[in-house]
Write a structure and sequence with these properties.
The protein is of the alpha/beta class. 16% of the residues lie in helices and 41% in strands. It has two domains: 1-30, no CATH class; 39-340, no CATH class.
Length: 396
């Protein structure tokens, strides 16, 4: 089965061939859950840039990660040594791989095809533990990686993936949250200016368990991080939060999928971004699916973008599919705009300069997400990084 066969259905909507001909009655699949999936890159056609999942991305900058042979050896990585956290490398045929999701596009499939071993981080025990997984010794060679993060039933933990330095990386990250567990996973992208990072995160959340997934993207030439959170057990809770700051020439993209596939599940999605400089481009696509069996679902998603200068572009597309009417609530919102003149005027009336007023607005806008991380040192470091971005240029 090929991707093209899976995403084109001539029977949809009672379609018939147009009198002009030539389009073969092909209509893209409309339902998010019907996308073709495979762990084999050969099952996906070449990316043209016209596909829905790739149409905003600068494909020429990372073509090798989609089509080329990748180095799938172990990445240089360090992990905090603390009780309740274990770290090991496991073979690609280990049964603990493949539980959270399957690639839906060629970049993730190429990473899955190429990796030799997966890095497994396990959280255990009922006391809250923090594990910092740091990757800052890569180079610009094209690489693949696979990470599995598992929270044992009833455990509590915070896992921070810190990404810095150079990279030319495509990867898959699986997150498995056991019944009754509470897990926060934070992925921080502070790459060097020329770094390329494609990442697909997949999560499965157990019965009465909770996952908070936080993305902070600041550095890198291209960062494309797409989390898919599957609430496939009754009472599961999922929160997806994101903060990003795009400078001139940067492309920061986040495609979020929240899948309600069990009764009485809850989700919240909040992504907030700022853009400044010629050619700064951000993309946010939020898909929420409430399946027929997901009675009692409570869901809401939103994306807000703050444009600081001319020459930027923010694409924001929320999507909501509801297959049952028996829900607690569901909604979505999206907004992109410049500074609120009333906010700036109020701050200036208190003796604050216009430039400092703008900085205060941006700080408050992004720090609302960063403050949810729960690790003081990481939050402080990210506050400083945002301050550095603001010091570079904040103009009306």
């Amino acid at each position: 089965m090929t991707n093209a066969a899976a995403t084109m259905d001539p029977a949809q909507h009672g379609a018939v061939a147009h009198s002009d001909g030539g389009w073969d009655r092909k209509i893209p699949v409309q339902t998010r859950s019907d996308r073709f999936t495979s762990t084999d890159v050969a099952d996906f056609p070449q990316v043209t840039g016209r596909e829905a999942t790739w149409k905003f991305a600068p494909i020429a900058k990372f073509q090798g990660l989609l089509d080329g042979a990748l180095d799938g050896s172990r990445l240089p990585v360090s992990v905090t040594e603390v009780a309740g956290v274990s770290s090991e490398w496991i073979a690609r045929d280990d049964a603990r791989i493949g539980r959270a999701g399957t690639p839906e596009e060629r970049g993730a499939a190429n990473a899955w095809t190429a990796f030799d071993e997966a890095h497994l981080v396990t959280i255990s025990g009922d006391e809250t533990v923090t594990a910092i997984v740091r990757r800052d010794a890569l180079d610009h060679a094209e690489r693949a990686a696979h990470t599995v993060i598992e929270a044992a039933p009833q455990s509590q933990g915070l896992v921070i993936l810190e990404n810095a330095g150079d990279a030319n990386l495509t990867e898959n990250v699986e997150i498995v949250v056991g019944d009754g567990a509470k897990l926060t996973v934070v992925s921080v992208q502070q790459w060097d200016d020329e770094a390329i990072h494609l990442a697909s995160h997949y999560a499965t959340v157990g019965r009465d368990a909770s996952l908070t997934h936080i993305v902070v993207s600041l550095g890198g030439s291209v960062v494309r991080l797409n989390p898919s959170i599957h609430l496939d057990h009754e009472g599961a809770n999922g929160e997806a939060l994101g903060a990003y700051f795009a400078d001139a020439g940067q492309h920061l993209e986040h495609q979020v999928y929240m899948d309600h596939d069990a009764p009485h599940t809850r989700s919240r999605v909040t992504y907030k971004g700022a853009l400044q400089g010629e050619g700064a481009h951000t993309v946010w696509i939020g898909d929420v699916l409430i399946r027929q069996n997901a009675d009692g679902t409570d869901s809401y998603e939103q994306n807000r973008n703050l444009v600081l200068t001319e020459g930027t572009r923010a694409d924001s597309i929320p999507n909501l599919e509801i297959e049952t009417g028996n829900i607690e609530g569901a909604g979505h919102a999206s907004a992109t705009g410049r500074f609120d003149d009333e906010h700036i005027f109020y701050l200036q009336s208190r003796g604050i300069s216009a430039e400092e007023a703008r900085k205060l607005v941006v700080r408050g806008f992004l720090f609302e997400v960063i403050a949810q991380i729960g690790d003081a040192a990481t939050e402080e470091r990210l506050h400083e990084a945002v301050e550095a971005e603001l010091a570079a240029s904040v103009r009306s």
